[in-house]
Amino acid sequence: MNSIVNLPHDDRNCGWYAALPEQAPSKRLSGEHNADYVVIGAGFAGLAAARRLAEHLPQSRIVLVDAQRIAYGASGRNSGFVIDLPHKFALEHPDPQHKQRLLGLNRSAIDQLQTLIGRHGIECQWSHAGKYQGAVGERGQGYLDHFEKLMADLGEPYRVVGRDELAGVLGSRYYSRAIYTPGCYLMQPAALVRGLGNSLPGNVEVLEESPIRTLQKDPCGTWLVRGDNGLIRSPQVLLGTSIFTQEFGYLRNRLLPVMTFASWTRPLSDVEMATVGAQADWGLTPADHAGTTVRMTQDRRLIIRNTYKHVPRYGRSVTDATRNKIRDDHRKAFEARYPQLAQVPFTHTWGGVYAISRNFTNYFGQLDQGVYATACDNGVGAAWGTISGTLLADMAVGADSQQLSDIRAVTGLPSRNPPEPFLGMGVRARIRWAAFNSRSEV
């Protein structure tokens, strides 16, 4: 028996989720059920897996279960980028074919999401806006030079943007220059995730606010998926649980739970937009990965995201005092970029947990007889979760493809972590060191 110890415990102050209309009451796990497939976790990966299973097997019963409301967890808490390019570390991979496989998988995910958004009329501020990668000072410009070389080696389109042109978009002269890449899409993550959940095929039953406490196999080989008030029996279980996969006893000591934080403003007025000379609907990530992400949404909210914390107990690792300190730090970063908007308040500050691995490797595959998982997106979750969840369902039903071969080729086993307390000490020290080195870019 694998018993869940730590459950999701996200804060109640996510701006993306708060901006959504009220949802109908959830249907929860109650009583005993039988299903052909159970998908645990209703983020990007779990939603994609449940949808693909239903498409393959329209006569089968698929149950999708989540501990919280759909869009309340990590998938609805990111900064709203759907990135086609591999992660910075993956861009440095020595094998060009490895990088091309990643590009193809990410772009397939974007195409898939765009099709679903159009087909089901999902209102989520979806936009082919591209992405800026910005540098502030000498350190950031060094990273930007390296990124430009990687892009040239990859043969991907990009454009160098100087301070004046960049200021005309951002409404801030804080950045010295940036590199613009056109393949990124922007969206409202909680709206997109909820829309994906509301548009699932009819043979998918969604159970929310139903944390799974144990995962146990009976003598006949059937998995017993047990919650507080109910039980699901199924021969096949797909885990779209990211960092929480370790709570089921799998990939233990191989995943690192990290939380990053964001704050956003109320929508800016016409006068405020004119004062700074900003455009709406853009996104900038830092050339130095420990710097600050900045976004302007279509409804003209400014978002500041930075600060990383090692959270071994997930949301319970973060106190109110810590959140208040992070909000103050976000305020400093905001006013450094937009001193003319010092009077504009933040309305929400929130965090989201994701999984990274020490060797920056994503897991994808079969963990046990009848148990499949995709875990550890290493901070690039929207595209990767979508394509890995889709292909995990293909694997579970035996539907082979070139994409399935590609994802097997670019994934592996995350490296083992040192034991506690050395792990926590090391991670915290590394985060502090990165923050110190990157202070000029924050």
The CATH topology of the largest domain is what? D-Amino Acid Oxidase, Chain A, domain 2
Q: How many β-strand runs?
A: 21
Estimated share of beta-strand residues: 15-25%
Radius of gyration: 21 Å
Helix content: 25-40%
CATH superfamily placement of the largest domain: D-Amino Acid Oxidase, subunit A, domain 2
Count, helices? 12
Q: Can you tell me the CATH class of the largest domain?
A: Alpha Beta
Terminal CA distance reads 45 Å
Specify the overall morphology.
globular
CATH architecture of the largest domain: 2-Layer Sandwich
Q: How many individual domains?
A: 2
What structural class should be given to the helix and strand makeup?
alpha/beta
- Nearest-integer average pLDDT: 95
- The strand order across the widest sheet is 7-8-6-16-17-18-15-19
Largest sheet: 8 strands, mixed
Low-confidence stretches: none
Tell me what you see in this structure.
The chain has 442 residues and is of the alpha/beta class. It folds into 2 domains: 180 residues, FAD/NAD(P)-binding domain; 219 residues, 2-Layer Sandwich (D-Amino Acid Oxidase, Chain A, domain 2), CATH 3.30.9.10. It has 12 helices and 21 strands. A hairpin with a 5-residue loop joins strand 17 and strand 18. Helix 2 runs parallel beside helix 10, helix 4 packs across helix 10 and helix 4 crosses helix 11.
Quick summary:
The protein has 442 residues and is of the alpha/beta class. The protein has twelve helices and 21 strands.
What is the strand and helix layout of this fold?
Elements: E1 2-3, H1 15-18, E2 31-34, E3 37-40, H2 44-56, E4 62-65, E5 81-82, H3 88-91, H4 96-120, E6 131-135, H5 138-154, E7 159-162, H6 163-170, E8 177-181, E9 185-186, H7 189-198, E10 204-207, E11 212-217, E12 223-227, E13 230-234, E14 237-239, E15 256-265, H8 270-276, E16 282-286, E17 293-296, E18 302-310, H9 320-337, E19 346-356, E20 363-368, E21 371-375, H10 381-397, H11 402-410, H12 422-437
Parallel strand pairs: 2-13, 3-4, 3-14, 4-10, 6-16, 14-21
Antiparallel strand pairs: 1-11, 5-9, 6-8, 7-8, 11-12, 12-13, 15-18, 15-19, 16-17, 17-18, 20-21
Helix pairs in contact: 2-10, 4-10, 4-11
